Each structure stands twice: as C-alpha cells, then as structure tokens.
Amino acid sequence: MWLSCILVLLVVMAVTWWRAGPHRAVGVTVLLSLLVPSWVTQEIFGFPVGIPIASSIMSLGAYCLHPRAIFRARLGLVDGAMITLIAIQICVDWSHQGFSWSIPMQAYGEWFVPYVVGRLAIRNTDDFRALLPLMLVVVILLAVTSAVQGVTGVNLAEAAFGHGQVDKNVHQISRWGIHRAFGPLKNPNYFGVLQLLLFPWSVYAAARAWHHLGPWWWLILPLIAAAGIFFPMSRAAQGGLVVSVLLASLLTQKRWRIAIPLLAATIALCVAWQSESTMNLLDAWSGDMRAWKNSRRSKQPTIKIDDEEHRATATSTRIHVVELYRVAMRKAGLFGFGTEAVTGFPVNVPVGQQDLNTLKRIWTVDNAFLLMGLRFGYVGLACFFVWCAGIAAIWIRITVWKSTTPGFTAFSAAMAGVSLTMLLILLTVWMPQQDFGFWYVWMGGASSGLNEGLHRDNLSRRTIGWHRKTKAARSL
Question: Could you tell me the pTM of the whole model?
Fold first, then answer.
C-alpha cells in the first residue's frame, strides 16, 4: 500500500512539475498526501516514514532539478526559530545519546522537510488561490469521512487503505452517543485538530464565492468543514473552532480589535474565579456528569499529586499534568532530557517519589509545550513558543494589511484566528508528527514564505514608485 501511494503521488507530481512548475508540484503533492492514513508507513533506516514525509522528500528532490527552482530566501523570525529548534534537537540528542547520523536525519524529517516544503509551495497569495480547488477536495473528503464514521461507526479511510496501528480503544469510544471519528489519523483529537487547521481554506472559498469568483455552493463549505470538525467529538477542536471564528470576526473589524485582549482577560478572570464550576462544565462537555450529581453514589476517583488529591477526570488530569512534571521541568534545565527520553509514554524523566503511583495512571503528556520543555529544556521551549506565536503574528499582520486579492482578508483572518487558538490547543494535546504535526509545521513554512513574498512585493512597489518620482523630477 505504501509503495502504491508513493507511485500515484509520483505520477501526479511529475505531471504538475512539467506543466505548472516546481513549487506548484511541491504544494499539490503534499495536499494529496493528507488523504493517506498516518498508519501507512514504511520503515527506512529504522524510522517509520509516512506518505507525507516520503512525498515531501520526493518533491524536494524534483524541485532541485527544475531549471526554474529558486533557492534564495530572506529569513525572518519564524525561520530563525525553526533553524534554532533544529540545531537544539541535534546538539541535545547528540549530548544524551552520543554521535549518530540518525539524529540529524530525524530532525530533517520531523522539522526541516515539512517546513521547507511549505515555504517553497507558498510565495504569494496567488499560490493559495491556485491550490484552493484541490484543498477543497481534501477538506470535503475529510469532512465526509468524519461524518460517516460519527454516524455509522464505519471509517472510510480504513475501508480504502486497510486497518493499521491506531491509538488504544479508538474503535470503541463515543461521546454523547456519537462515534468519535478518527478518519485517516490515529486519534479523534488529532483528526479534529487537523480539520481545524484546514478550516480557513473553506472560509477562503466562501469569501471568493461571495465575490462571485467561485461557484455558489462554495458558500456552504465552512458549514461542511465545521461538521467535519464536530464529529471527532474533540473538545479542543470544537472549542477551538468557536474561538477561531470569534477571533477572526474581531480581527476583520478595526474598531473591535481592542476587544480581543479585554475579552481574553475577562474570560481568564472568570475561569480563575469559578475554576471548580468551569472544570465541571468541561467534564460535562465530555459526557462526564458525575460532578453535577450531589450524591454519594457518584463519588469520583481521585489522583494524588504532591500529596494533594485531585479528581481523576480527563479535564482535571490535563490541568494538573504540569504539577506532576514540575520536578522534571526543574531538572530539565536549559536543554532538557532529549528526544529518546520523551519517546513513548510514560516519558522517562524524573518525577517526585510521591508521584510514581500517579504516573502509572496519568501516563500520557497531553501538553505539547510541556513535552517540548522536557525534551529540549527552557531554550527549546522558548524557540517553539516563538515559532508558534510568530505564525499567528504573520497572519494578524496580513489581516490588518488588508489584501487586495478578493476573499484573502477573510482567509488571513481565519488563519490568524486558528493560529492564535493553536497556542491554547497545544496546552491540551501533544503534537505527533505523523498526524496533525506535519501539517502544522508545513503551515508555519507556508506562512513564512508568504510573509517573504509580501515583503518582496512591497519593496518592489516602493522601488518602482521611487524611480517614477525621480524620473518626473528630472523631467522638470
């Protein structure tokens, strides 16, 4: 199956490479690879290589062979954070594991490949517009897969590509009587977050249809994409969609932008003031109503962290997992314990002696920032946060700038909303590279590529304007 998928993508890439150029081939190949399940992998040099990574390496090689390939780049903040993060991974892992060529190869596949492919695929707003029709096919197919599995329990991805290794019990879990769809990924949470990251493309299509630059049915695509996000029944993805749409709506209106920090501060204060009620509400959202029952029979199990008892619910464990690894974070220092220590759960890092029993019950680390801090220390965590925040800053700037391309302001506002929301979502999930992590890194590269393209266009316009003024002054 792996080889068959690669051959199909190779044909598509070759045709696109020949007819539309190298950077368009890079974009098309990666978009189509999103439809292939993350469990379709092939072990190469000891690493499980998925279709997105393999197709990206393949398209990078083809790009380098094309006579119109461009290798020059103006590096920005997001690029610098990514380069530093890659360097930290190589140096830290060499320090903990000893010298091995497999370490830079892992960093190459995990960060460099998806980031550079995204940067090469997107250079200006026209590239997003050119990839839009194909992306809409991907969004619709993922949404249909999500809805069908949510209603019937049948996973179309497994029907098409066969069964593979997925997270424990994902075939049996449901929420509010709805099967939790996981589609071509290994977990419903990952599937929901991936579709949330793709949601702005449906907004772009609807905005172009509103300007009569697309078919009328594009207007309903945001609803279709929202349905796809709903059926994995992931609170992070569902809540993230609401927050993203709210932020995007506020960003598009100049007079309402000041409301964003005020609204965030108000919500934070309310949550801090009514933390117990907020936690009960989030538990009820997941279908756990025990906290709302004032009955001794509904007494909930507890966990003990630092000799303090907490409720053993999905919400509570996500909130208190930072306390569980507080000792480990102090010992992580500037550069952390390395990749090997945090590969697989429970992670192999020191915790308090009194927390060893709790660690057997809370064995996952559903917090990407915490996991990054344990892996690469405070320096790596700072680089990762700057990289995530830098993506959001790029899209906020583009939204404020207001593109003249029809529908692009709505797209950039949606991207800004999703990018900001990801800063919250990553506090509740970790970022597996074989699942939504690949696309998030790709999106970072694409954001940086667009930012460079817009800077180049603005510089060109200023230069042309300066020459015209100089010529007019000389003629006088």
Answer: 0.90
